[in-house]
Amino acid sequence: MIKINENYLKLQSSYLFIDIARRVQAFQTAHPDKDVIKMGIGDVTQPLPPACIQAFHEGVEEMANAETFRGYGPEQGYAFLREKIAQYDFKARGAEITADEIFVSDGAKCDNGNIQEIFAQDIRIAVPDPVYPVYVDTNVMAGRTGRAKDGRYEGLVYLESTRENRFIPELPSEPVDLIYLCYPNNPTGAVITREQLKVWVDYARENRALILYDAAYESFIRDPGLPRSIYEIEGAREVAVEFRSFSKTAGFTGTRCAYTVVPKICMAYDETGEPHAVHALWNRRHGTKFNGVSYPVQKAAAAVYSEAGRMQTRALIDGYMENATLIRREMEALGFSCAGGENSPYIWVDGRQDSWAFFDFLLNKAGVVCTPGAGFGRCGQGYIRLSAFNSRRNVEQAMTRIRTALAG
Ligand SMILES: *Cc1c(COP(=O)(O)O)cnc(C)c1O
């Protein structure tokens, strides 16, 4: 008899996006003449930068000729891409990361989800609340939690992000070994300062813990004083793995290219307390289970670092950030207190009511779809997430409609 991994039965089905779709469908059936504006999406809306498209085409042409054709590439990614990443994303910012510490992959979601398998079963894990669901669900699947009770899994340490701590959680009161952090944050849009991040790095060093730092929204940081990489913090190379993606930076959500940084001096320990390089473990996993990102896609990703590519991606993000500024300003003018939207494409709005009640109000009275904060965790209750990934026209229209709905 073939048996299942029963940990999968513990997973709380994510009704969030199904529930949203169902309510939107019901509204549209009742009001076929009204269009809805989707302000809940966590996906980019603008096309790839022209520099990436050109490089992508060239890559495809090379595959069409016997002289330039390429089969399997290095599992860790081509040197031409890894060197550019090390140069522009790290060395240029004073973070000492070398090309051979970079693992190119087809997504930060996969890497975030896969990395847990190189660690022991009985480690203590800290996850933010609210949170990107991948960190929690992959540990549930691996059997590192108990059952779910009132929306939380037994055995996990939840790091609460609330208005009181301005969405930066305090250190856990009980010892933990693995810590998930995400800045700029999805869903709250909060950013972390150097001083605040140093507290976590110091904690990890003192406790031989490891930080998994998800910096998928790093390119939306506009404040030059904020860290864009955890490796800008002294000592972080010893205790942190960083995840980055071209998805939000350059519109690669459908093209698929990301990377994970594992410094060679970053250690994890065996039963006897003997240190082992996380780099070697991840290299083994990556090489065994992954066969590299498509060559034309890596060519397209490398073009992000060309002069034209940097200008074009900057303009792309500037466009989304103008939307974010507009959304935050409008919501604040309407009396809502907001987080995010300044160095992040997400605006976290305190609705001062049940998340779903506010969602229903915005849908039915304004024809605007948001994401209810409660779907991201217990601490998300009372909030909604608005996304800047949209056209200017849609954002302007949505804000006008919300203003009118609240006045009526
Ligand atoms: C979008 C997103 C990612 C990127 O995932 P890809 O698989 O690279 O597209 C990673 N982390 C967070 C928090 C995200 O929102």
TrEMBL record:
<dbReference type="InterPro" id="IPR019942">
    <property type="entry name" value="DapL/ALD1"/>
</dbReference>
<dbReference type="InterPro" id="IPR015421">
    <property type="entry name" value="PyrdxlP-dep_Trfase_major"/>
</dbReference>
<keyword id="KW-0663">Pyridoxal phosphate</keyword>
<dbReference type="Pfam" id="PF00155">
    <property type="entry name" value="Aminotran_1_2"/>
</dbReference>
<dbReference type="GO" id="GO:0009089">
    <property type="term" value="P:lysine biosynthetic process via diaminopimelate"/>
</dbReference>
<protein>
    <recommendedName>
        <fullName>LL-diaminopimelate aminotransferase</fullName>
        <ecNumber>2.6.1.83</ecNumber>
    </recommendedName>
</protein>
<dbReference type="InterPro" id="IPR015424">
    <property type="entry name" value="PyrdxlP-dep_Trfase"/>
</dbReference>
<keyword id="KW-0032">Aminotransferase</keyword>
<dbReference type="InterPro" id="IPR004839">
    <property type="entry name" value="Aminotransferase_I/II_large"/>
</dbReference>
<comment type="pathway">
    <text>Amino-acid biosynthesis; L-lysine biosynthesis via DAP pathway; LL-2,6-diaminopimelate from (S)-tetrahydrodipicolinate (aminotransferase route): step 1/1.</text>
</comment>
<dbReference type="InterPro" id="IPR015422">
    <property type="entry name" value="PyrdxlP-dep_Trfase_small"/>
</dbReference>
<keyword id="KW-0808">Transferase</keyword>
<dbReference type="GO" id="GO:0010285">
    <property type="term" value="F:L,L-diaminopimelate aminotransferase activity"/>
</dbReference>
<dbReference type="GO" id="GO:0030170">
    <property type="term" value="F:pyridoxal phosphate binding"/>
</dbReference>
<feature type="domain" description="Aminotransferase class I/classII large">
    <location>
        <begin position="34"/>
        <end position="402"/>
    </location>
</feature>
